[in-house]
Amino acid sequence: xxxxxxxxxxxxxxxxxxxxxxxxxxxxxxxxxxxxxxxxxxxxxxxxxxxxxxxxxxxxxxxxxxxxxxxxxxxxxxxxxxxxxxxxxxxxxxxxxxxxxxxxxxxxxxxxxxxxxxxxxxxxxxxxxxxxxxxxxxxxxxxxxxxxxxxxxxxxxxxxxxx
Length: 163
Ligand code: HEM
What we know:
By secondary structure, this protein is an all-beta fold. It has one domain: Lipocalin (Beta Barrel). Helix content is 0%, strand content 67%. A ten-stranded antiparallel beta barrel has the order 1-2-3-4-5-6-7-8-9-10. The two termini are 20 Å apart. The structure holds protoporphyrin IX containing FE (HEM). The site of protoporphyrin IX containing FE (HEM) has 21 residues, from strand 1, strand 2, strand 4, strand 6 and strand 8.
């Protein structure tokens, strides 16, 4: 089957289509700091939504770490919606806007408007994500509020296009 053209609604996000890979670091007041490697793919099937696949692994042992999947949807007027399901029993619905960062790169700033926590999952209360991208680079930060800890930085990664 031939690849469909990108839906016009995805034009502002076109540079995300493809695969990015690189290193990340994590920390939080309740855990030891850690490092990871990550691969992120945004794909499309001609509809006005990007399919998101993420996987991380230990940079030394290469053992799988966190993974998440979801859909990124432009919502008009520079707004975006990002739905993410995590391997550890949490779902995030994030909403926010698409603008330009001070360095001229595209930026998505998103906060959770809804969180699903399975019975066995850790009680995350709030997540905020910022992604910055151009055709060759995708980097991001993630903050979360968890148990009694107020919103605090958890992750930063800097990925480069590999496909
Ligand atoms: C690149 C993605 C991520 C990686 C590599 C990662 C990695 C880790 C690691 C290594 C830990 C410490 C070990 C553990 O308790 O399992 C941890 C803890 C945790 N992470 Fe993440 N994480 C990621 C994304 C997220 C996201 C998006 C959230 C929130 C939605 C999150 C929520 C948590 C929570 C709640 C803990 C437990 C903290 C505690 O037990 O005190 N993580 N993460």
